[in-house]
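Reviewer 2 asked us to include a model.

Predict the structure of this chain.
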Amino acid sequence: MLPLIEAEELKKLDKDTYVLIDARGFGNSRERYKQGHLEGAVYVDLEDLAVHPENPAYGGRHPLPGVEDFARLLGSLGITEQTHVVIYDDKAGANPAARLWWMLRAVGHEQVQVLSGGLQAAVDAGLNLTTMIPVPPVVTQYITKHNYTGTVTLDEVAEAAKNPSKIVIDVRETPRYLGQTEPIDLIAGHIPGAINVPYTTNLSPATRYLPGSELKANYLNVFGEVQPNQVIVHCGSGVTACHTLLALEQAGLLGAQLYVGSWSEWSRRDLPIATE
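Predicted model (structure tokens):
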């Protein structure tokens, strides 16, 4: 199953065959959900997809919840191990939609897709909005196949950034990567040796993901001789990086890993910082 689904494809699905998740996630998104969401969509907040760290220097700003806590969340959403899950947000998959997709894939769930173009694409395709809040069916607790896979530690990132047979990709906006501005974390800059491929390069001007073939060509040009499973992706706090991990899977380039702590962890550990 490809990780992306188009709005026209979603329209053709029987509503009883999938669970729809609204993962707009930030700020007043819960209120926006209440004011209008796709029919049948259950709300998930970014706070549901992370834990509050005592110290972001160890794990970053959005560390993963324990896998048992995540399993309980899935069960509360009416998701079983066999459920086809479709997720959307209003950021073209750049925020919690891609993060939830990655988390499900990381615990072994196979039938999960993100709506390309997000909520706006659905509206443009004629899908209906509603203020009715659905009640998910009661299911037994989701049983994960394993703990999260596909993650790396700070030490592994530090080694990879110095290894010519590996690539560390920073998907943040270029001014943040260059240390020209830092609106969220304490220090501006990037991990020495990391390259900058902003997540926005995955998108067309219409804020849809580029076709898989185009994504593949773009990333093969970035990778050169490096294999996809030797690539590490990070962002500010391990959320937006999932947008690029989704793009890589859509392109058929499998095996890239996520540095969950990302810049929010690295920049708080008195480690080397680059600004060029």
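Residues 212-223 form the longest helix (12 residues). Residues 138 and 272 are 49 Å apart (CA to CA). We have added this to the supplementary material.
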